[in-house]
Amino acid sequence: MNDPVFSYEFFPPRTQLGERRFWRTLGRLEAQEAAFFSITYGALGSAQTTSVETVEHAAKECDTPIAAHLTFEGSTKEEINAIARCYRDAGVDRIVALRGDAREDAELASKRGECYKDVPDFISGLLEIHPFDISVACYPDTHPKAASQQADLYALKEKVDAGANRAITQFFFDETEYERFRDRAAAIGINVPIVAGVLPIRDFKNVVTFAERCGTKIPAALVELFSSVADDSDAMATASQHQLDSFVDRLIEKDCKHFHIYTLNQMVNIKRCSQRSADHNMARLGLSA
Which backbone phi and psi does 194 adopt, to 5 degrees? Predict the structure, then answer.
C-alpha cells in the first residue's frame, strides 16, 4: 500500500503572537511534504479581509498548495465570486466550498442581489470562474440538521455530481463509522475520495464542546481515558499523542489513504507506531487504551 497522504487545516491568525505561531507551524509542516494546506474563511468585515490576505500571502510564500475555504451564506453571488477571482489571480487553484453558518444578514444579502441557493449551485458558479480543485464537507456521524442519514448522503452526492473532487469529513473518533460511511457513499455512486478529518485532542473539554456543536459522537473509552489524565499535563500529552497515532493506524487498516488534520494552528506530529509499543507507553503511565 502507498504511504498515506496528509493535508492540514489552519485558521487566519488574529494577533501578532498568533501570526508568529501560524507561520512557524506552517513552515514546520511544509517540511513534511503535505498534500495541501487549507485556510478557513471569516465571512464578516475585518475577518474576511484577514482571510483573503492570509490566503494570498500563503500562496505566495509556500511551495505547498493552498486551499482557500469559501462560504456563501450572507453574500451575493457577485460578492463571493469576486473573492474567488482574487484567489484565482493569486494562483490559488483549490477551494473548500461550504455553505457557512446561518447568518442574520442572509436575507439582507438577497436584497442586494442574486445569491447561491446551495453548495452544488455554489460549486457550479466557482467552476464557471476557474477549473478549481474543489473539496466539500461530509459527516460520518450525519449532519445535525439533516433530515436523515440517507438524506445527508444524497446531499453529498449532489455536491459530487456538481463537480467536487473530494469530500473531507467532519472530525470523528470511530474508525468503523468512517468505514461504514465510505461504503454507504460508494453504494449510491459517490466515487470521489472520502478524506478522514482528524482533530488532535489537546483540550478534551473543548473537544466535547466542538463535538456537541456538530453532532460528533465521542466514544465512552475516550471519555474515560481523558478524564483519568485531566489533572496531569504530561500524562495528557502522552495520551493525546497515543490516541492520535493509534487512530491514524486504525484508519489506515480500514484502507483510508488521505487524512486532513485540524491543527488549530498548532504543530502536529503523527508517527505510525506498533500496537505493542503504544500499549507499552500507556502501561508506563498506568493507563489503558
Answer: -100, 105
Q: Which of 9, 56, 73, 179 is catalytic?
A: 9
pLDDT of residue 281: 47
Average pLDDT over residues 82-102: 95
CATH number at residue 124: 3.20.20.220
Any domain includes 289: no
pLDDT digits (tens, 9 = 90+) for 248-288: 999 999 999 999 999 999 999 997 544 434 444 444 445 54
pTM of the model: 0.91
**Does residue 158 carry a catalytic annotation?**
no
